[in-house]
Amino acid sequence: MSTQLDSETRLSLERALDRLGAGKRRLPDPMLAPWQEFHDMKKTSMVWRMGSGEIYLQWFFEWYAGQDDQKRQAYKAGNPPPEEWSGFFDTLDLRILRKTE
To answer: In this predicted model, what pLDDT tens digit does every residue of 40-53 receive, in sequence order?
Structure first.
């Protein structure tokens, strides 16, 4: 069983990656939270587990982990996740903590 994105969704994902400079690793500062960048994608969508969404999450984590604690706290305060994404920042913070141990 394959998951096929409709052309509008695919175009939206391609545009998002183009804005990020796909492959260049020069990330915008600040990055949009995943639910803002892909506002039409549910958290349970397969797009977050493969393809463009997965890449975006990896890049977002890379950017977020590169911020100092004060900037991360300010970002979280200014970009509260919708209910569907509750716990997202806690998960990222735990990954950062584990990397520094």
So the answer is: 889 999 989 987 88
